[in-house]
Amino acid sequence: MQRTLINLPPLRALGFCLAITLFEWLTYMASDMVMPAMLNVTQDLGADTAHIPNAFNLYLIGGVCLQWLIGPLSDRFGRRPLLLAGCALFGATCAATVATPGIEVFNALRLLQGMGLGFVVAVSYPALQEVFCEADAVRLMALLGNVALLSPLLGPLLGSLLLEWLSWRELFLGLGLIATLTWIGLYACMPETIGVVRHDGGQQAPIPFSLGQLSSRYLALLRNHRFVGICLALGLMSLPLIAWIGLAPLLLVQLLGLTTREYALWQIPVFSAVIVGNLILDRLLASRDLPQLIRLALWPFCLGLLTLIAAALTSLSLAGLMTGLALYAVGLGMSNAALYRLALFSSDDSKGLVSASIGMISIAVMGVGGSLIAAIGGGTRLESFAIWAALGGLLSLPLLYRFLPNVPTDSASST
């Protein structure tokens, strides 16, 4: 069992990890499981297929909308009540999708559902860092990320199977019901980390909430060039994967004429590769510091993106596209949790506010970048997608080159 920094029984610590994992998994499932049905959604609501990537990007943007407020509120009032409120909001908006009358309401609900992702990033991630010591926190972030990755890995396949018996409205109702069970698990198992004295004598005291002080603290973070650079790199490194999730239904189903089940099966190589990268990260954590791990991850990361560009400039096949994406995904899996940890501890401010800033910057990069790739034709041809997605990911390299060598190897002191 992982070492906890607060007095938490092993079974409750396990339940806490499982409940957070389920909530994170649900926030992704709310997108991935219905992606095979998005053509049906637009047809049912009489909307243009251009709303398919738009709805996905609105979901990402929803994850940004409240993070600036959620993180500081959790610093003041505690992680536990904020995460319970976020889970309740997510479940209610999923259930409300059953009565969606048109695409405008559907998109608005997607925005609200995406706010659940904001609670995961701004509240549950800092809570994990405050409950567990450094190595275990990074390991849990990676391993729990593997479980969350089961959503894009199995979500499209599960969604295509369920759609043979259920409508897309009933899928959302099911997500709402599972969110209710998740809320019960969080209520029973989640500890409060604010104001609790840890085993090492440290304590994260409540921080008074003031809009004036809040704006000055955010401005101070934005002046921290290292922090902003790492956050931008975090978003850009994930951009090709996010663009693939949003545009895959158009590329595979509408463009290539695959069935929804075939579309779902083609997701397996990409997200399996991310899981492989996370497992490699777990094995290497004991012998290497975080900057070294990220530098190692750049080898498969860059090789995969360069493969996409080379394949697009010759004769890109679906197999070639998948090969490049899978190589890139291994590098992403190896680096994501480590880079998040470096970003979180590149500032001495409260971890709720810092985590909220990480989420806002990185998710905004992914949402805006995904929208731009869709707008310039990334969903119309495999070659266009491969080139623009690869270039977007490679933009992270100058930022990593600039800021990664300057990150202290002991940047992640135990919380």
TrEMBL record:
Principal location listed in the UniProt entry: membrane
UniProt similarity note: Belongs to the major facilitator superfamily. MdfA family.
Pfam family, any one: MFS_1
Domain of life: Bacteria
Subcellular location: Cell inner membrane
Ranges where the Major facilitator superfamily (MFS) profile domain occurs: 16-410
Membrane-spanning segments: 12-31, 51-70, 82-103, 109-128, 140-159, 171-189, 227-251, 263-281, 293-313, 319-340, 352-379, 385-404
Transport keyword on record: yes
Name the UniProt record assigns to this protein: Multidrug transporter MdfA
Membrane topology: Multi-pass membrane protein
SUPFAM superfamilies in the record: MFS general substrate transporter
InterPro entries tied to this protein: MFS (IPR011701), MFS_dom (IPR020846), MFS_trans_sf (IPR036259), Sugar_transporter_CS (IPR005829)
Swiss-Prot/TrEMBL keywords: Antibiotic resistance, Cell inner membrane, Cell membrane, Membrane, Transmembrane, Transmembrane helix, Transport
Subunit structure: Monomer.
